[in-house]
Amino acid sequence: MGSTVPEADAAPLTVTQRRRRRRKKRKWHRCKRHRNHTCWRARTCRHRKHKKRRPKPPVSEPDPTPDPDPTPDPDPTPDPDPTPDPDPTPDPDPTPDPEPDPEPEPDPEPDPDPEPEPDPDPEHEPVAWLDEDLTGTALPTTTSRHLLNRLTYGYTADLHAEMVAAGTGRAWLETQLDPASIDDAAGDALHAWWPTLSKSHGELWDGERTGDAPAWIAMADYQRWCLLRRITSRRQVLEVMTEVMEHHLHVPVYDDGVFAYRTAYGEMVREKALGRFDELLVAATTHPAMGISLDNATSTKRAPNENLGRELLELHTVGAGQYTEDDVKASARILTGYRVAAWSTFDAYYDPASHWTGPVTVMGFSHDNADADGRAVAEAYLTYLAHHPATAERVVRKIATRLVSDTPSDALVAHLTDVYLTSGTDLSAVLRAVVEHEEFGASAGLKARTPTDDVVATYRALDVDVLAPVDSDSAANSIVWQTQDIGIGPFAWPRPDGQPDQATAWTSASRMLASFSVHHGMAGAWWPAEEATYHPRAWWMPVASGETMRFDDYVDHLSRTALGVPASTGLVTACCLVAEISESTQVGPSHGVARWQFPIVMATVLDSPDHLSR
After folding, report:
1. For the chain, which residues make up each domain, given as ranges?
2. Contact between residue 606 and residue 561 where contact means Cβ atoms under 8 Å apart
3. Predicted local confidence at residue 136, as pLDDT
4. d(CA 386, CA 278)
5. Were 594 and a residue from 18, 36, 415, 541 both cysteine, which residue would form a disulfide, CB within 3.0 to 4.6 Å?
6. How far is CA 553 from CA 80, 543, 557, in A?
7. Which residues contact 251 (CB under 8 A, 6 or more apart)?
8. In this predicted model, what pLDDT tens digit does every residue of 429-467 receive, in sequence order?
């Protein structure tokens, strides 16, 4: 009446036992193309982004014979193929297997799309939009506005004119990557506005010691200078990368004792922000400001302080989990000798008598470290760390988080890591690779402006002419309080890890309300008002006295002039609500929206996502 099942020599295996046997035969491996993906498939990687199509099932024509060997094995071991066909021999247990696929995957993955996604690495063709002809464009194109939103501190008519004059986004970027070629007289003149910026460490210490010029004033002046440079300087890409690197190699401006060297530290970072990271890391780690902040200035061979040695590994280079406690101890020993006479003269010097000598090993770096002058060892060690693949990944992820999105893909980070390593840690090369990557082009509007970004972009949008300060109420001095009102001033994050650059940190209800308040005060030219020139309200109305235009056209004009983008439907609707008129209402220079209602209408433009995101 039918085939009979031979009786097995051993008891039949349960479903759980069969699963365990199959797991033992899995061969785990790293995907060659996707470094963060671990696959257990022995024959092919099934990563959903793999370039190759998923292989078809091995059986295309059914075999009329259920099993090539009619005699079953004593132990019904499953087929060693990682994706075996169901066992054609029926199980002695009459109960059917509850799972059609007896081999569940540890992390279920969705079936790949019919058309696989492109290979995330290795050879990226430069994106075409970088070569888009910008000549004669009245407003930034969608793509060129995205470029200036990410690589500058916000739209201005002058900035757009520079991009048009360059001809293409790529040409403009190449000019920006050579800041010495850019005439920046206005930006350079800012340094003289605050005398504390030019004082030596001894003069700053004298002012703090006597109380004539407290240290916090020098640090506030440094913050003001940074903010005004972001508003004024034509070297916008340099300013952006300087901020990124100062956050990565963070020295809090109000950290105890750093005032004597913090301005000099920031100037050093600005000088190297578009160069090689290995050179920047050496200069930053051995700088007196970093030594004071992370206690290396008092570290000696008898009592090496591990603070800088640890943060160097955890925050500045390879990251947590990559090193051992012995590595931390050796790292601290290598860095001994860099001293600062804090709270006496604040002189910085290298003291060979304080340098720990003896063999050291850190994560593959080894040195006999026999010389009392350990500066050569420290430089070699820091250069080694700068070229470490784990450091490369951390540095480029920090850059991608600033320029692309809060969560840059592993594929983008892997590509940028390769560029970083093959270019010899060249930060400009990484920046080019970011902009040329398709993920950058697809990320418009995904980043929220931080408090400092918001304040700077608002000054630029309103085209406020800030003059040299004369007292504490001057706009150039008040600006630092504006950033603190919204959330935080430049480089004031108190921890050594640098402030976050994700929207979750800066999009709370209280932050938004604070931004709205600053926008309203500046739209009305109320505060700060001293030593600051705002356009009169009539300047924003494009029709002459006696003429009128539709209100929605007026809102569109405000958006185009301030933000460089046409007004969205949502913005027009919001402005109609605050002005309590319809979009078809005729308005002119004598209408309330151009006079007493102007601050609330312009503030609404500044409160829009087109301004608060980038």
Report:
1. 142-389, 390-442, 537-612
2. no
3. 84
4. 5
5. 541
6. 71, 11, 6
7. 258, 262, 265, 289, 290, 293, 491, 496
8. 999 999 999 999 999 999 999 999 999 999 999 999 999
